[in-house]
Each structure stands twice: as C-alpha cells, then as structure tokens.
C-alpha cells in the first residue's frame, strides 16, 4: 500500500493505492548448457475505488559456454502502476509521482536485452549488455507545478505519449582482494513522442544521458580500516529553454525552442570515505565512517534561472546555473547488536 500527496502552495491532496501481485516462475534446462527462465506476474491494482488488472510475462534464455563465458537473452513486458510525471521548465526540478486512474493509464514497456558475461579468472569479471525498451503511456506535465491546486486538475493537464530507450553498458568488476571495486560505462539514448508536443516529432527525454561513467574502488589496509573512492561523470539532464525573450509593455515574453533541446553541463563528482570497524563479528557490529561528498567542490548545476537587470538605458538578460550541493563532509556511526 502506498500513500503520497502533492502540496502546491497551501492545498494538499492525499490519495491511497493498493497493489496485489501473484507470480509464478518456471525454470528448466533444454540441454546441459541452455537454461530457460520464464515466468508470469498477475497484478490487481486499486486506487480510489478504481480497479485495474495487468499481466507481465517474461522469458530468459541462458547459454553457458564450456569455459568462462555466459550469454543471456531476456524478453519482458512490464507495467508501472505508480508513474513518474516529468516537467521540463528552466527552473528548479518539480517532478512528481501519480497513481493510475481512469484517465491516466498504466505505463507499459516491452524490453529486450542481450548480455555477455566473461570471467577472466575467479576474481575479475567483464559484462557487456545491450538493451532496447519501448514504452507506452509515458507522462509529462507541461505547466509549472504551482499552476494546479487540486489533484483532479492534474489529469486534465497531463500529456500522454510513448517513448523508447536503447543503449549498451560495459562493466569491469574485481570482487576479491585488498583492492576491489568496479568500473562501468553506459552509452544510452532515450526519446519521447507526444502528439501535443513539437507537432508529434520525437524529442529527448528529460533523463536522456548519452554518457555515464561510474567507478567505485575500495582498499583494505587492514580488515578493519577501509578507504573508498567513488567517481561519477555523466551527461547533464535535458530541459526546455527559451531561445528568444522580448518585451511587450515591459512584460517579458519567452519563445521556446524544441522541447528538451537544452542540456545542463556534464555532471562530475568525487566522493571519498574512510571506514573504521570497531567491532565486527556474528553478534555485534560497530563502524565509524568519515566521508566527503564532492571532494573537489565541483559546481554541478541542478537547474538554470533567468535574470533581468535594468539600468537607465537598457535591460540585460542572463542565464545563471544554480547549484545546490557543493562539498559536504560527514561522520556516521553504524552499529548492530
């Protein structure tokens, strides 16, 4: 059971939803090195006296080559009953979640993926994954979040469309030893298509990130002293920005270019942590962690703002990147007994 609400200014809308699922998996071998994993899930969804049903089949084929390489093919159909509604304004991000209703259908997707898993030895693994995903009933809220004040009005303004996403991922992982960790690179593309946006032409999704590089490394000086380092570099989020601003009777009027055509700068963050185990056994655990978020104090913008400055002769317009979090040190004590 999930409970969520929206709070635009002073009015509050609260809704409850319930999801019940029954699933069954079927696993068997065709021959010694070909394994089939299939299954089906049946969902019953209830929201504000609205009853809906969905069906989710899946099929996985796993081929184990004699040696150290495995191959995987996966087909799946999925349904999402609680949907993320994205916005695309130049200001602070205001995405929100909403449950399916009579006017808001389930989000559905059909997914296919192909994977290769290679073990160089017992310690080092390389994964290659390709994925393709088609989505139906994706949601976008085209207005500013402050423009609605009742939950029922949201359904009238939300746009419903389709989308697709595809890409590939490389993952190199070392699982044992004093020095261990993983490094991954993902290239992906995510597109949306809405009849009411850009004349039905395809445009980039808000979270379309062409490149994403992530690294997590740890080194154990002793079993009780461990240092960790995380590095993330990725393409910035996309948003819709005005390409022209002019004034009518001293009132600014904005003209917008293609939906989600603008993009924030690359995101770059390094985190460092020092872990000191005080006690670590079957019955008790105690650990102190010192960490630094965004070690090099990189200014990663979350959104952009438009500023108007007027002097005696002219009016200037500037766009400013807004940053929420810079360097953040912290200390944490974890214990279990």
TrEMBL record:
<dbReference type="InterPro" id="IPR039426">
    <property type="entry name" value="TonB-dep_rcpt-like"/>
</dbReference>
<dbReference type="GO" id="GO:0009279">
    <property type="term" value="C:cell outer membrane"/>
</dbReference>
<keyword id="KW-0998">Cell outer membrane</keyword>
<keyword id="KW-0812">Transmembrane</keyword>
<dbReference type="GO" id="GO:0015344">
    <property type="term" value="F:siderophore uptake transmembrane transporter activity"/>
</dbReference>
<keyword id="KW-1134">Transmembrane beta strand</keyword>
<keyword id="KW-0472">Membrane</keyword>
<protein>
    <recommendedName>
        <fullName>TonB-dependent receptor-like beta-barrel domain-containing protein</fullName>
    </recommendedName>
</protein>
<keyword id="KW-0813">Transport</keyword>
<dbReference type="InterPro" id="IPR036942">
    <property type="entry name" value="Beta-barrel_TonB_sf"/>
</dbReference>
<keyword id="KW-0732">Signal</keyword>
<dbReference type="GO" id="GO:0044718">
    <property type="term" value="P:siderophore transmembrane transport"/>
</dbReference>
